């Protein structure tokens, strides 16, 4: 069985409460249980932290063992050279995701330190962005 992890960065623990006009009303845990049930052929895990170093540590921990990583580094996407370097250093393919269309938002959100090292990027499809990323691992072109 393929082992895939979703790694979420800062403030994503507030999904369902935080800015519902941008992020919706569903908590990530509710969504995660739905997607786990929909894809029983995958060992799907989830990790969230508001702390940059913990995200880097998790990338290092799983980055040589797992089949795929779905990474929403949230605001750290646009600020963290360290997270970009961690993605570059590991062997496991990473798909960068964002719930909102970051290109419709503030200019600083148009740059990603993760993108140069990612297998691909999915933005702007709400929580479905995670499922699209998962499908990219299960149905490679």
Automatic annotation (TrEMBL):
The keyword Amino-acid biosynthesis applies. It is an enzyme of class 4 (lyase). Pathway: Metabolic intermediate biosynthesis; chorismate biosynthesis; chorismate from D-erythrose 4-phosphate and phosphoenolpyruvate: step 3/7. Keywords: Amino-acid biosynthesis, Aromatic amino acid biosynthesis, Lyase. GO terms for biological process: amino acid biosynthetic process; aromatic amino acid family biosynthetic process; chorismate biosynthetic process; quinate catabolic process. NCBIfam families: aroQ, PRK05395.1-2, PRK05395.1-3, PRK05395.1-4. Belongs to the type-II 3-dehydroquinase family. This is 3-dehydroquinate dehydratase. The lineage of its organism: Bacteria, Pseudomonadati, Bacteroidota, Flavobacteriia, Flavobacteriales.
């Amino acid at each position: 069985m393929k082992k895939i992890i979703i790694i979420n960065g800062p403030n994503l623990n507030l999904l369902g409460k935080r800015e519902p006009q941008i992020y919706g009303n569903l908590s990530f845990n509710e969504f995660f249980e739905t997607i786990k049930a929909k894809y029983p052929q995958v060992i799907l895990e989830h990790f969230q932290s508001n702390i940059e170093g913990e995200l880097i540590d998790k990338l290092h921990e799983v980055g040589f063992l797992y089949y795929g990583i779905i990474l929403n580094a949230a605001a750290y996407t646009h600020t963290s050279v360290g997270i970009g370097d961690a993605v570059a250093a590991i062997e496991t393919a990473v798909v960068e995701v964002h719930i909102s269309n970051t290109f419709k938002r503030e200019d600083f959100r148009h740059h990603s330190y993760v993108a140069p090292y990612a297998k691909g990027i999915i933005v702007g499809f709400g929580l479905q962005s995670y499922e699209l990323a998962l499908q990219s691992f299960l149905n490679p072109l």
